[in-house]
Specification:
The protein is globular, with a radius of gyration of 21 Å. α2 crosses α10, α4 runs parallel beside α5 and α5 runs parallel beside α7. The chain is built from 10 helices and 12 strands. 41% of the residues lie in helices and 19% in strands. It is α/β, with parallel strands linked by helices and 320 residues long.
């Protein structure tokens, strides 16, 4: 029996022989909005028939417009720190849209609850928890409560971070460095607490880095140092934990966030100049760009990718 899936805007038909028939570009709407309840090959389009390459299998009833989606992260459980705003919010929403149950952690519970409401409004599920990642006990409690609620842990996204930007190296104080490294320590604490559960699940760890560390952006000494420490720890963990089936990767975004908004307000023209330096000439979207990349790394397609830094930055940093 034929199966259907959407891959990069194409409707694909999987036949009995295991081959695939490409109907036409963007023919999802052409086919499912057609007055006839069949595609050009005469395939039945009223049922879900399976997955193709780990992507969503789609079925839609043409008359009633009913839709069923088999999602690539269905049954998975994810923790996202710093999930109450910005990049963390976008990643959390993307993971939930892909089927994962998402535990949203942040210092301000109300912000996480707001994001959870957004996820639930989109038919997702999750749990909002207060967590100060600078405290090891909070990180351990976060993992314990996530597992107690959902029974497992498959994905850990260490996003929470804070720092004081636009401070020259000569003016950087001890407390600036300590503040910047809270996020590094938080990721480290969460990785240690999550390891036994990630080992059972052959899970995925995504740590957030920064192009500021890759490029050495002026005014970001403490922040860049902390983010490069994240990359170093991630490479070591990838090498050590690979034997357990755990992948560890770093994502460096350039996208909308409260930090970017702060820079727009306090440093007129700075973000515009950075955006002009990107190959894509735009600021990324935290859900559709950064979140989508995280979903890929956490899905079937990312199972053999580990120890890597993935720049989701529109080409602001193109390394040789």
């Amino acid at each position: 029996q034929a199966g259907h899936a959407i891959a990069d805007g194409f409707l694909v038909d999987q036949g009995l022989e295991g081959g695939f028939h490409l109907h036409s570009p963007n023919c999802f709407d052409q086919v499912f909005n057609a007055s006839l309840g069949e595609c050009k090959r005469g395939c039945d389009i009223g049922q879900v028939c399976g997955k193709l390459l780990g992507l969503c299998a789609i079925a839609r009833n043409n008359g009633g417009r009913e839709e069923s989606v088999l999602q690539q992260l269905e049954g998975k459980v994810a923790i996202v720190t710093g999930a109450g705003q910005g990049v963390g919010r976008g990643i959390a929403r993307a993971l939930a849209a892909a089927g994962a149950s998402v535990v949203l952690a942040g210092r301000t519970l109300a912000k996480c609850e707001t994001v959870l409401a957004e996820i639930e409004a989109e038919s997702g599920r999750g749990l909002a928890l207060a967590c100060d990642v600078s405290q090891r006990a909070d990180c351990e409690a976060l993992v314990e409560r996530a597992v107690a609620k959902f029974g497992r842990l498959d994905i850990l996204v260490n996003n929470a971070h804070t720092s004081r930007p636009m401070v020259g190296v000569e003016a950087t104080r001890d407390k600036d460095m300590a503040l910047a490294f809270q996020g590094f320590h938080g990721g480290f604490y969460c990785m240690q607490a999550g390891f036994p559960h990630l080992k059972l699940a052959k899970g995925r760890v995504i740590n957030l880095g920064s192009v500021a560390g890759l490029r050495g952006d002026a005014g970001f000494g403490a922040y860049a140092a902390a983010k490069e420490a994240v990359r170093g720890l991630s490479r070591v963990a990838a090498r050590e934990w690979g034997v357990h089936g755990i992948t560890v990767n770093v994502v460096c975004p350039f996208s909308e966030s409260p930090g970017v908004e702060y820079m727009i307000d306090t440093q007129p023209g700075f973000i515009g100049e950075l955006t002009d330096q990107t190959a894509m000439k735009r600021l990324g979207n935290s859900k559709d760009d950064v979140g989508a990349a995280v979903v890929f790394l956490c899905g079937p397609g990312g199972s053999f990718i580990t120890g890597q830094t993935i720049n989701v930055d529109g080409g602001i940093w193109i390394a040789p």
